[in-house]
Amino acid sequence: MFDAKVAIGTWSWGSGINGGDQVFGNHLTQTDLQAVVDSAMANGLNLWDTAAAYGQGSSETILGNSLKAYNRDDYFLSTKFTPRFAGSGENPVADMLAESLKRLHTDYVDLYWIHNAEGVEKWTPMIIPLVKQGLIKHVGVSNHNLKQIKRAREILNAGGVELEAVQNHYSLLHRQSEDDGILDYCHQNGITFFSYMVLEQGVLTGKHDAAHPFEGDSNRARTYNPMLPKLNALLAKMIELAGKYHVAVADIATAWVIQKGTTPIIGVTKQHYIADTKRAISLNLTSDEMKTLETLADQAHVNTQGSWEHSMNE
């Protein structure tokens, strides 16, 4: 159903609450990001992931404006309903979707997510009529544990709608969805697993280490800089493999999650990263290389679980 091997993420676009400036320390303009969109579309990377919560809608606005020149059939839009920002109307899911559609300049979204599991019983049924109205083509859940995924699927199925995708934090440094059986469940039931924070907000790009920490006072710098000294061995191995395969270090992390049977969401902020992302799709690591990376990641003993994430086994 989802043919794309990689999705382009836009969490780091926009500004304000949960926006690129506060989370990542980015200050990107529409012009900067138009070049990213144009390069991605030219390279066949046309699955775009955003959310109403990213920068209070500003990520959707930038993405929608950047895609206006393209035919709607030529790209695939993924956005999200976030329970904590729900309004008080009769159907807050419909209300948030309507605002997203305006910002994205479209009358339907290809893939719509319930962004977290705060109220599975309350919010999941509200998506069903929106699918039947043609406003949503496919449904997914994000930041849900296995029990919550199964319950959301039951609710949707009872209304004649399929659960077609799951999106969770998944990377070399955070493999809880694998450990708790979510990946296996998705593979067994034809549900596409989208992995986000694959590069751990830039930690797994090889551009930062203990001697080259993130600058500034962003959430990213405060969270990841203390971890960098523990990642020396893992990053050294990734740099070695990048040299062997003539790719960027980030491509090693991306290829790893692809080979684990997931569709990575890669946050791209600069045009030249598009070529790197495309290369990762055709990169094949050996089973020994995969295992070595996992062992080194485990030995780092870092916890990259986000403040918004609940333990998958709760």
TrEMBL record:
Keywords: Oxidoreductase
Domain NADP-dependent oxidoreductase as annotated: residue spans: 6-296
Record-linked Pfam families: Aldo_ket_red
A GO CC term assigned to this protein in UniProt: cytosol
Matching InterPro entries: AKR, AKR_Detox_Biosynth, NAD(P)_OxRdtase_dom_sf, NADP_OxRdtase_dom
CDD domains per the UniProt record, alphabetical: AKR_unchar (cd19103)
GO molecular function terms listed in the Swiss-Prot or TrEMBL record: oxidoreductase activity
The protein's name in its UniProt record: Aldo/keto reductase
Encoding gene per record: tas_3
